[in-house]
Design a protein that fits this description.
The protein has 17 helices and no strands. By secondary structure, the chain is mainly α.
Length: 417
């Protein structure tokens, strides 16, 4: 399939849904102690309604929106490289410049705004994805399957190491380093010790300078760990995105019936085992390792299937022939919306804003999500009615190309995906 020179409205709309959907999971990380992202007993309330909210997110959202975002990132990588090559430019050079600039944005986001950043990870994996751009879709898909198998093996090795660490920490003669490593792991993904949770809350509700100092002291090792822990999976998602673009899946080239059939098959395969993983988390009493493994290792085979099923369902809706202008604009400004959401959540939850960190139960976080979605859908089309790019898209493009890009609208149809 040849890559068109105009924008794909379906990709923009899907990206809009992804950047909105990912907030459904990230809101817990913005608002609650770290372990609450994976484990509902770590924060946000334990009422049935709060546990139900966690369960629904686990089954339908956790990892699926990240997978969809990664799939679309892979598709956009292919578009940028092939369009640059077709214009007589060096697609590889442009791609590396984009990834280097994205890494700078990601590092700033990680250290200055929110330690849950994914942009730095994408920039590193995006560099690794470049050699696969020229492959045929079937090759890209087969390699993605192999990468997911490798990811499962890597995840299993990490899982065994966590079990070993728990055992070592339980011994009477456990060293201070072993205990510190175990408590650090539990604080991040499970029910942390009261004093550790209190310290995290104090940092979040404290001054911004203290927050940054804490991130500089604790987050430098995060990107290398994330690359080792799930870099293979992220790369697999990006290759799936390239193959899905060339197959016409992401561009709206399939019939509505075919999208619905793909969604039905994906949900039939992916939902039952994911529901079982959720049930196992409940059955374990939300044991730290069991719940974390269910969300990470257990989901490796099913995350891409459910992400593609949800994308197919969305594409069936988007193929109704009607314009979805607000959603498309939200996707065109996804970079600005992603970083802008972090800033907005910082102002709501952190100490240099309203200081609401760990003060709101999980179920009541979702009205904040809804208000943020509304803001995205309102400002994005209003801005793009006058300008070619979202403000941070313009900054990223200008820095990557070494000069300020034209901002006012000339011909939106030629704007890069």
């Amino acid at each position: 399939m040849m890559i068109a020179s105009t924008r794909y409205a379906t990709i923009d709309a899907l990206r809009g849904l992804a950047v909105m959907g990912i907030l459904l999971m990230n809101i817990a990380d913005f608002a609650l102690p770290s372990g609450a992202y994976f484990n509902p007993l770590a924060g946000g309330g334990t009422r049935p309604v709060d546990l139900a909210a966690w369960a629904v997110s686990f089954v339908l959202v956790d990892g699926k929106m990240r997978a969809l975002f990664s799939i679309l990132f892979g598709a956009s990588t292919l578009i940028v490289v092939e369009r640059a090559d077709a214009a007589g430019l060096s697609g590889s050079r442009i791609h590396f410049a984009r990834m280097a600039t994205l890494a700078l944005f990601g590092a700033a986001h990680l250290l200055l705004i929110w330690p849950g950043d994914i942009l730095l990870h994408y920039s590193l994996v995006g560099i690794l994805a470049l050699p696969f751009v020229a492959l045929e879709p079937r090759q890209q898909f087969r390699i993605a399957i192999l990468l997911l198998c490798a990811q499962f093996v890597v995840g299993a090795l990490f899982f065994v190491s966590f079990l070993d660490l728990r055992h070592a920490a339980s011994l009477p003669d456990a060293s201070a380093a072993t205990l510190a490593a175990w408590h650090g792991f539990v604080d991040g993904v499970g029910i942390g010790r009261a004093q550790d949770v209190a310290a995290e809350i104090a940092v979040a509700r404290g001054p911004w300078t203290g927050f940054v100092a804490h991130n500089l002291a604790t987050q430098v090792g995060g990107p290398p760990f994330l690359l080792a822990f799930d870099g293979l999976e992220t790369l697999a998602f990006m290759l799936i995105g390239m193959a899905a673009l060339r197959s016409g899946f992401l561009t709206g080239a399939w019939t509505r019936a075919r999208y619905l059939r793909a969604a039905a098959i994906g949900f039939a395969i992916g939902l039952p085992p994911t529901i079982v993983l959720c049930w196992l988390s409940f059955a374990s009493g939300f044991d730290t390792i069991a719940t974390f493994a269910a969300a990470t290792l257990g989901g490796v085979p099913f995350r891409p299937i459910l992400a593609l099923a949800e994308a197919a369902l969305a594409l069936a809706w988007l193929s109704d022939g009607r314009p979805h202008r607000r959603l498309e604009a939200t996707g065109r400004a996804a970079f600005s919306n992603y970083l802008g959401t972090s800033i907005a959540m910082m102002l709501v939850f952190d100490g240099w804003g309203l200081g609401m960190f760990d003060r709101i139960e999980r179920i009541w976080l979702y009205p904040i999500v809804g208000a943020t979605w509304l803001a995205m859908l309102l400002w994005s089309p209003a801005w793009l009615a006058r300008f070619r790019y979202g403000p941070l898209e313009w900054a990223w493009r200008s820095l990557a190309r070494g000069k300020a890009q034209a901002m006012r609208i000339n011909d939106i149809a030629t704007v890069s995906q």
